[in-house]
Structure formats: C-alpha cells, structure tokens
C-alpha cells in the first residue's frame, strides 16, 4: 500500500482525472508482473495494449484526429504515475516512444500522413514506438550521423546503420533520422538532416533492414536494437516535414520531452522510496525496526526531499512549456531532467542499502530500480550533455560540445 505521499504540487482537476484513470489501469499490474517481465526480458505487451485500448497513445494527438488533445501538464502526471505504481522506468520506457513519436507527424506531417496514421495510433491499432537517431559514431554528437537518404526520382534510397533503437520489436514504424546532405556540404552541421517514416515489416520483408537486439542489463523488458539499412527505397511522401530541416524538428518539442523524462525519474524514485520505507518499517534487527536508525532514515529522507524539489521544478515548467516561453523553459527542462535523474538514483541507492543483502535479491525489486535509475543518467541524453547545455546557454560559458 502507498504510504509515502508525493503532494508537493497541487494538481488541476484534469491532472487528477489523468492520475486516477492511469492508477486504475496500473492496479492490474502488480510487482510480480514487472519482476517477471524484467526476469524474462519480455516486453510488457499486456500493459501496453491496455493503455492503447484506453486511448492513451493519443494523449498528445489533437482531437480532430481522434486523440485526447492534451499536453505536457497531463503527460507528466501520466508518466510519473505509471513509474510510481510499480512499473518503474521500464514501464515508462515501454510506452514513451509510442506517445512522442507521433508528435513530429502532428507538427510536420502531410495531411495525408496525419489522416492515415494519427487516428490509428490514438485508438491503439498502430504503434510508432521507435525513433532512430543514434549511430555507432554519433551518440551525444548527433549531427555526426552518417545514415544517408539519397533522392532518386520520387524515392529516397537509404543506407546506413543505427544503434540503440528501442522497441523495434513492438512497433509498426520507425521515425528515422538521416542525412540528406553530407555534413561537409552544409553551412551549419544541424542542416541537411531529414526525418522519415519507415514501415518496419515492409523494410524487413524487402531485405533492406536487418536488426539485432543489443544484450544489456537495465530495463530488460524493453529491447534496443542495432539496425542496418541497405538500399531501403522509400516513397518521397514518407519524408516527415521539410527536407534538410529534420534536426530542427527533433529539437522542437525537446523541452516537453525532457520534462516527461524527469517525471518518469520522479515516479521511479517515489517507488524506490516507498519500497525502502516499507522494508525499513518491517525488518527488525537488534530488537528494533531498522527504520529507527538514522543511517537508514536519512538517505531515504534526503532522496525524498530531492525528488520533491525536482517534482516542483518539473511541474512548474510543464505548466508553461506548451506556451513556448523560450530559453527560460529550456533551462528548467534541462535542470529538471538532471535533478530528477540524480534524485531517482539516490532514492534507488538508499532503498537497496535499506534492504541489506536483500537489496540485490530480485524478489524485492529494488535492485531493478537501481539498474533503471542508473540508466536515467544516460538516456535519452547523458547528464554531462545536460550540464553542457546549462554551462553554455545559462551560464554563458564557452560551448564545449
Ligand atoms: C537503453 C537505451 C535505449 C536507447 N534508446 C534510443 C532510441 O530509442 N533511439 C535513439 O536514437 N537512441 C537511443 N539511445 C541512445 C542514447 O540516446 C545514447 O546512448 C546517448 O545519447 C549517449 O550517446 P552515446 O551512448 O554514444 O555516448 P557518447 O556520446 O559516446 O558519450 C560517452 C560519454 O562521454 C560523455 N561525453 C561525450 N561528449 C562530451 C562532452 N562534450 N562533454 C562532456 N561529456 C561528454 C557522455 O556524457 C558520456 O558519458 C538509447 C540508449 C540506451 C542505453
């Protein structure tokens, strides 16, 4: 039972509605469900299907295309709740792409593309879960991507390699980012990059896409892939938005997404603290509950305070980010991601320590939260790159990346 409250921000009526609806769905997926998924390395499709059936993949899709037409203030509540209810960062990761990858289509897709896909995403029939940007030689330095889409008549021919593309096994499409002009020929490295929609089954059956899952140790239920594209022919109408403008399309909406990632970290941290507190109250050593010892209390209390601070920052920024208030929101979104990931890590670490030896026993789940919390310091952007942004854009220090 949830005994640790997390009410440092006041929710609007709409946010309370979102929280309660999501909580109802999550109640059917207990700790055992998530533990088993992690152990078996199996995608949580029952959970994802349930969310899809209730229309949650359309949360950001405008109502005219069958979506809910909500915004960041609602999605932060949704994702915090999903993580906090027991799913942790894995559950959030299992669906994050499915919600965000339709945003470029909403903003930049042609009317035909919108009508073809958005209603079907919103009702859970079509999954656009995958986003392929990172390459073996282009992670943090994402404008160095080499995957190339060459225009030939009314087609693009795509060749290249991607790495760490998540959920390809649970998706109908990949939103693929590729160069359409070589980096050496553009004025600015952010130019000459474009965004495409790739039908996964079609590309595989034509023999132009090969994929291999990457063995890894965090969020085992959500798989990430290495992809090889060889002469993949895409009709020109699969271009999303404007040719050469794809990097700007990626950047647009990044603050919103950072805040939602922060909310996922906060939910994971809350979950870890709850489990740490439960165990600290139950476990008796030297004739008293271990939670009576300040060595156990303080790390949990400190992480709680840090999580609540990150939550206030996240929700405050979420309330204004959709109005695009410029640089100040960029700073807040980056700070929120940084602080929330650090707080989640501190919370998971304190929960593991409170469990003693059982901290590494899978049956108590906290070792899973710890692995996931560690991952939040790496994805979708590393903590260092967030600090680079703050150093340059907020403090006015020389650009370092
Ligand atoms: C589980 C998982 C799922 C992922 N899913 C996706 C996905 O669906 N789609 C996708 O496109 N990508 C995905 N990624 C990729 C992820 O976005 C990258 O791993 C991340 O951006 C870092 O890139 P990199 O791994 O190449 O690290 P690198 O860029 O090689 O960096 C290595 C280290 O050096 C540091 N560093 C590098 N340059 C600087 C600098 N200038 N200043 C300070 N520090 C620096 C970094 O912070 C990092 O600690 C995923 C990754 C993981 C692990």
Automatic annotation (TrEMBL):
PROSITE patterns: ACYL_COA_DH_1, ACYL_COA_DH_2. Its cofactor is FAD. Keywords: FAD, Flavoprotein, Oxidoreductase. The keyword Oxidoreductase applies. Residues 130-231 form the Acyl-CoA oxidase/dehydrogenase middle domain. Residues 13-125 form the Acyl-CoA dehydrogenase/oxidase N-terminal domain. The keyword Acyltransferase does not apply. GO terms for molecular function: acyl-CoA dehydrogenase activity; flavin adenine dinucleotide binding. It holds the Pfam family Acyl-CoA_dh_N. Residues 244-384 form the Acyl-CoA dehydrogenase/oxidase C-terminal domain. Belongs to the acyl-CoA dehydrogenase family. This is Acyl-CoA dehydrogenase. It comes from Haloferax marinisediminis.
